[in-house]
Amino acid sequence: MSEEVNSNIIFEILQGVPEAMEALASILTSSGFKHIETIKNYELFGLRLYELWNGCCNRNDYKTKQVLELLKNKKISKQILDEHLSKHPGIGFDEIINQEIYACLINKKNRVEEILLESIHTYSLVDIFGRPTRVEVEAYKHFIELTSYLLNDKSLLIGIESAFRSFDDQQAVYNELLSQYGSEYAREYVAPVGHSEHHTGQAIDVNVYVNYRWCKTNEELFACEDEFRIMHSHLHKFVFILRYPRDKNTGYPYEPWHIRYVGKNLAKYLYENNLSLDEYHANKKDRKGDCTE
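That's the D-alanyl-D-alanine carboxypeptidase-like core domain-containing protein sequence above. Prediction below.
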């Protein structure tokens, strides 16, 4: 059957052609997928079928939920499908899926999707002050590479002050800044519970080691502008972005310490086009297949 699979057949599934849908239902059922009756999005079915027919899907619940939920209501056009099939035959749609995971926009208006929270894979460690924390596995791997480069090539030591936060953790951060700086400052700098990038483990608040110690306040961190400038200039090489730069409208003031892992293609695209993540999403409808290729 795999010899018959091509972009035209899958495009029929994307469009909800009944015969193609019946074939898909049979394949999914025989592969252990249990919730066909609850799924209404045909294009997600198409992605799943392509992976199953090519024997390259991860059949566990985690991957299934990613495909069905993180791509929900995302239009995968035939043009994108054809390009992907020609460039990556037999590989499946992991790159597209990962792009949705790492490109997600979370801010004061966009709440983190519950399914993303359920599917996060993190690495456990301690922060620079000895407190337990977690970082999304790909973000941590690239952060170690960034840290090593800055230390060995730039004699700059950085470390993790904050990474993954539960909803309770986020409320505690708000309460702490509220007591230290007042309500106006807390509202300006701290995301509401459920609206923080830290919930994903992809965001890291970086501290800098200067004068033989780590910085202890935001005022001290702001005073490390030279050190942060060095770090900022190399972030894209290690698949990070400065999430709240000084010259962009992100909904938050400038935070030199807050970096975000966004995936290789997107980090390169944002850097080369001088875009914030917010600008990328604002203009997304006008682009065709750029950094998802």
